[in-house]
Write a structure and sequence with these properties.
Elements: H1 2-22, E1 33-39, H2 58-65, E2 68-70, E3 73-74, H3 80-89, H4 93-96, H5 123-128, E4 133-139, E5 163-167, H6 182-186, H7 190-210, H8 216-238, H9 241-244, E6 247-249, E7 252-255, H10 263-281, E8 285-290, H11 311-334, E9 340-346, H12 379-382, E10 386-389, E11 398-400, E12 404-405, H13 409-417, H14 433-436, E13 447-452, E14 455-461, E15 470-477, E16 498-508, H15 525-544, H16 554-557
Parallel strand pairs: 1-8, 1-9, 2-11, 3-12, 4-5, 4-8
Antiparallel strand pairs: 2-10, 5-6, 6-7, 9-10, 13-14, 14-15, 15-16
Helix pairs in contact: 7-8, 10-11
Length: about 600
Amino acid sequence: MLAEVCLFVMLLVSVVSDDLSHGSGKIPARPPNIILLMADDLGYGDVGMTGNDTIRTPHIDSIAARGVKFTHHLAASSVCSPSRAAFLTGRLPIRSGMAPSGLMRVMTFVASSGGLPSNETTIAELVKGAGYSTGLIGKWHLGLNCRYQGDFCHHPLNQGFDYFYGLPLTNLKDFSGDGNTVMLMAYANMNLGLGCTVIVGTLATFMLRHKNMVRKVGFYALLFLSTVPIGIFHLLMCDMTFANSVLMRNYEFIEQPIRFDNLSQRLVNEAVEFLTVRSRSGNPFLLFMSYVQVHTYLHTADRFKGRSKHGRYGDNVEELDWSVGELLRALHRLGIENDTLIYFTSDQGGHVEEHGLDGQREGGWNGFFKGGKCMGGMEGALRVPTALMWPGVIPAGHVVDAPTSLMDILPTICHILDIPIPADRVIDGRSIWPLVTGRSNTSAHEFMYHYCGTQIHAMRYIPQEEEAIWKVHFATPKWIPGTEGCDFVCPCYDHKWIEWHDPPLLFELRSDPSENNRINISSDIKYKEIMHRILEARETHLAAVEKVESQYSFFNLMWWPWLQPCCNSPWCDCFDEKYSNFSYGYADSDVFS
């Protein structure tokens, strides 16, 4: 009898253990804590879980090993601000006015008036309504003020977050202080051109005065117009540190310019403090950890410099992985890792044209996918390394190959929490819970639309009746010969850099993920029917897109002096006093040997 009881107990323990290791797929009664981890410009091939064996990312990889890896997870845009707006709202950027309509494709200044409209509903707002406390640590890049300094119409705290510590804009290569700036990378001769313009304008003004062709008042007016506006333009555009290097805590500007020597460690410390305080409350929380890595400037703490095989970029990726590991350790220490859903992704693919002044590559690697950041419908721009884990609930080691999207996270969280998806607007995302739990292997999407700005450059068609993923390119970048890139970024509209195809280019991604073998549409009636369905779906989609105010209009992107933050006025120079003597307490196992 005793032997039978022991056998029964052993079998019961085995079943429970197996259920916890592989995941039951059943949603517990207690709502999970939610941590959303988003890297910036991380390439699909930059981490171990997607095949990289030269950059060490054990903590990111562990999320995939203990949960689900997505091999076909797609950004909703190939550039930061639109992609993040789509992620938070579950909606294509074109629907919220967050689709750029010109050369400027991101929020450019802290003192611009554009940003995520307040009438959009974010993930944070939805879960807050379900009793969650919410926090955002890191990069925002979705606007700040509208009409005056302090209205904070686009601020994270007005978009559902209870706490914010981070950058209202983004990390920029200008912040390095080494003379390497965004505008000079895009327009190498800009300083020369501006200098020549000032010289010519000044000489012409003096010549007109010398020949008595203008009076004294006109002379000073012309002298002002030929120098001051260009000086202001140079101050704002050729080194964006003055205008944009700002750190905030909630509504307060606490640091200007940003001190980057220990910024990553400060962001981690803020996140761990948030987890600690919220876990003690007993109520569920959502933390959006929006990393500034691996966007340039590549600020890496001394502890991580020179440790990777890929220079500054590899060091920065490995510091990013360390940061992820610190949050995982905190969850374990607090005893809440089995009660927490963790999602890791990137806002879009790696920036393949990015390099430093010394020629060293500073952008990501997108594996065998072509193209990268800013390239509308290119696979390297859209595929992002992604994993999701919820120990004991989500099966460990599961792989999802079906096409999914960053926009799917909002409806998936709504599904898990049993809260309604906003019914007064179009939600482009779909719940991927059946895919995550292994109950389905079919994409929830039939058509996926890949915009570059306000134009559809590519589409994906996933028919339910066959195992195929059809990809159509209506437009592709004109790369510099021998490369997969443009000068610095590929524009959406310039015919010098964009080629429109008639007929469009057709590929089948399951058999040809690198898009090496273009299908001749006229070779088979099957392909003609596929194209007909895609074109019909495009027209139906475009007809249903409502016109809204563009957040990328000239006036919304313009730098407005009355919106410019300046702490410790008039010096515009302050330091976060909380971290005046801060030194991060690393564990022995924090850094790889």
